[in-house]
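seq:
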Amino acid sequence: MNAFKLSWMLFKNNLKLYRFYLTVLILTTAIYYNFLAVNFNPYLEVLGEQSVFARAASSLCSIILFLTVLSFMSHANNFFYKLRYKEIGTYMLMGIPGGKIGTVFALESILLGGAAVVTGLPLGLLFSKLFFMLLSKAMILDTQIPFYIPPKAIGLLLLILAFIILLLGLKNYRMVRSSKLIEILNAARKEQKLPKIRWIRGIAGVICIAAAYYLALNILDLPFDWHMNFMQATVLILILVCIGTYFFFGSFLAIVLNALIQKKKLIYKRSRLVSFSNTLFRLGTHYRSLAMTAILCAATLAAFSGSLALKYFADTNTAVEAPYSITYYNQDEATGQKIRTIIQASSHQILAEHASHLLIGNVSYSHVYGKRGATCLITSYSEVKKSLRLTRPDNYQQILKDIEPRDSETVSILHSNLIFSGTSYAGQDFMIQGRPYTLKKEVKIPFIGELGGIGQYDTYIVTDKQYEQLKGNGQEMTLYGINISDPADSLSLVEKIAAVMKNPGDNLNSYAGQYQYKYYLLGAFYFMGLVMAIVFMISTFSTMYFKILSDAILDREQYKTLMKIGMTEPEIAQSIYTQVGISFILPVLLGILHGIMAIKALESFIHYQFTGSILTGVGVLILVMTGFYLFISKKYRDMAVKGWENHATA
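struct:
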């Protein structure tokens, strides 16, 4: 029998073993195709600027997905190799050369990957219409994206997956060929060694994680006067988190477990000795998987909660960009009357009107790169107070307390089209119209909105007394705001108003226009972020699945011996649940903390609070992980206790 026929026979006989792996790989292939299809769908061109947002989100997700697929398939490959270790030894005892065995196993892994691609690609094609419908809904597009199969997307997908599959096939060949019969026969009796206790690395890991958390919580106010922008600080935090997580599981966890084992009163209760010692002895080879699990769990939470946060931001920030249904300035009284007449003649009703007064001035301040000056808007605290009482954002009464300045202070309302802010100047000294002030706070609240003529300027709030003094050196302008019924459906009305205005591009803003544009920008990232959260969740499951079941393979002989000397099956089950819990709960908890800190850093960056998104993400993740923990513990128990006969030849 040639190598291909033998590999085909082994592939068919082991389909039950590969069931979970195939399912995950098929789903991932289908999702991967749809991400690539966004970049090559010609019908997206008609969307203009909106297609740029969709393709940017798709490209980012495609890169992340490639790394995730590579990691997942590598972990699965190592698991299958350990599971079939004895099978390789049997072939060697039969006199089959290692090179031929390696060829057989390499071909089998290629057949496995090929089966996933052959099944996953048609599945992706089948559901591509649904994918684009959901994407259109997330971006609130008025047009339907026709069904289209881009050949370039299929070709690129096949090329990427072929590269990964052939790479793993080559790895399988080398692993099997380098295997030695004596090592395979003695694998079950191989003595496990305690990991080295490295105090310096363990403490350094905790310090790195603590430092990363501190920087994430103070990313716009870094200690020691570090001159770093948001992106530089983010890279530093990611490096510290990765190093800290690696050292935490590689060294600090060994220190903790070693200390617990020394406490006889704690360790000799029930079956804790077996669980804790097994975990400790395995850390030398498993700490990388534990660290990867924690990072994938953090990515899952960050993707899910981050997507919810973007959805919340899109909903909420529209009120910042368009405080009123219709906002305009720099118009004469006759034009203002025409605007009211047009509204009254429409199906919409005028609910409220407001006029805000402000000045155009100049602000200067010292910056890390020198002294800076810029045009700004100036208003009084009482003007902002009247506006917020009408627009009523969440917690507006608390906002009013927080932003009330003294005569020597000012509060900055960041301009509304600023989505991300990498630097904070709170606490610094400013000169406004030649007068000195200390910046008390930076906020994003509804006031000016996204007006082309003045919306790009920050607004500085001063006391009423200071405003009256500054008004003598500048020209005051009036900003008009009108609230109407059904503002989200008022685009046609806004077009009629623009027709009677002078320079409406700079002087007119509407809630309807900002609402749709914000979803064009963030809707794609929101939808694809949720899809990536599912992919990360699956990757977290698979990493844990293959790592924990690898332990079950190693523990079969140990638990069989323990039962022979009197340990009952319930006691073994209790030991297994504890051992799996240590290997499961610690990475999940640390991953949750990492994910929360990532969202907290995003809060500082966007100047919003995402508490609800964080709590929702944590709650969903804990619920799903609890179910998976129970499933994997039962699977471990079946393999280690009930499945000796079934797995004896595997």
